[in-house]
Amino acid sequence: MLPPGGRISGARLARLLGSWRRGGARQGSADLTAALKLLVADGRLPVGTRLPSERELTDALPVSRTTITAALDQLRAEGVVESRRGAGSWINGPVGAGGGITGGDDTLIDLSRAAPPALPSLRMAMDVALGQMPEHLASHGYDERGLPVLRQRIADRYTSRGLPTSADQIVVTSGAQHAWALVLRLFVGPGDRVLVEQPSYPNALEAVRASFGMPVPVPMLADGWDVDGYEAALRQAGPRLAYLIPDFQNPTGLRMSSESREALAGVLRKARTPLVVDETLVELALDGSEAPLPMAAFGGDSVVTLGSASKSHWGGLRIGWIRASADIVHRLLSTRAAIDLGTPVFEQLVLAALLENPEPVLRQRCAEALEQRDVTVAALREHCPQWSFVVPAGGLGVWCTLDGPVSTRIAVVAQNHGLRLVPGPRFAVHGGCEQMLRVPYTQSPEVLREAIGRLGVVAATVAGTGFPADADLSVPVA
């Protein structure tokens, strides 16, 4: 029985593959195999997708029929592709079903997500929330704004950071990604342009595309944001919206200075372009320096701020929020019912309990992240000395500059060594960042040391310095 799934044309598959050749003609089939595996691992070739015929692929790429056949044979051997005479070929399973990126391999180390596990305080907050649930059970349970107690505590947190905020300016959502989708629905229509940083958070870029908007990248400088570049982009592109991550930017880890915030807010205000600020990582300051005022303190009512408990507390809570002017809040609520009818009550009560006295929990989270960052930095310097990076002052990842445009190759080879990585081009709008790699530090120190030890072997393998690709790295990871 054939799996359900659409068919991808040879021309579209060629566009997804992009510049897949790395090792010349002799390495053609190996490079094509690796590139196809990466598309599967990234989810761009979902399970069940019907592949073009070998003849169509030969014309579309273009390569020899022998290269196509060898690549498909290897993918069949690994269980990634299945074929049947008269029915063609299709994606049969995720990469690693026979070789290591997903599934039950207890040696797998996942460095694809910059998301920490929950702290013990979460369990105590759940106990508090459970005791409060009975008083809510007599109501219908729907609240498109969010529970008043939680909205007030979120507002108080903004006020303590120097941005006076009322509970009426807060809308509770099911995570920051949901918040971003609601804002895009309000502001962006088909074909509208959205200014974004380059590089930027991949899921935010995908949300823009899903709303039929067009992300317009403005490259980051080595030390931060290019205000002149944004001014030029505003003139040339006429964007409907701008999206920034000014606090420990994902993936670079940079933090925007007060001077740049004021200058950039002024440029956007002059162009009358609303700004959406993603503060998902704002609470994870690791260097002890004084934090600048929130971006909304410089941009006023034209700034919409997104927040989340996913990095500071736990992603499984799925609680985020929007801070905006009363007018924008009213407009958001009028469109929300088409997407959902509110956020789960129990999870809101859990976060409200955590925010009743937030500092101890945040100090613990930052202390944990600081130790993990320092372990990661030391291990990278030991095992990947040819790479360079700036030690981040906050956030949850190190943005590494590699010794060549090999990020995709490293991500593919890493699968054979029990590592799951996101290659640099995923953080770019139209490709690029092939010389960059994000290394999150959200695992325990022991796991991080093991992971980066493996990463050093992978880097050496890709560089061709004598490490065999099938090196024995099967030590179980706690």
Automatic annotation (TrEMBL):
Stored CDD domains: AAT_like, WHTH_GntR
UniProt keywords, alphabetically: Aminotransferase, DNA-binding, Pyridoxal phosphate, Transcription, Transcription regulation, Transferase
InterPro entries linked: Aminotransferase_I/II_large, HTH_trans_reg/aminotransferase, PyrdxlP-dep_Trfase, PyrdxlP-dep_Trfase_major, PyrdxlP-dep_Trfase_small, Tscrpt_reg_HTH_GntR, WH-like_DNA-bd_sf, WH_DNA-bd_sf
Ranges in a coiled coil: none
SMART domains for this protein: HTH_GNTR (SM00345)
UniProt GO MF annotations: transaminase activity
The keyword ATP-binding is annotated on this UniProt entry: no
Domain HTH gntR-type: from-to ranges: 26-94
Similarity annotation: In the C-terminal section; belongs to the class-I pyridoxal-phosphate-dependent aminotransferase family.
PANTHER family in alphabetical order: HTH-TYPE TRANSCRIPTIONAL REGULATORY PROTEIN GABR
Name the UniProt record assigns to this protein: PLP-dependent aminotransferase family protein
Organism ancestry: Bacteria, Bacillati, Actinomycetota, Actinomycetes, Pseudonocardiales
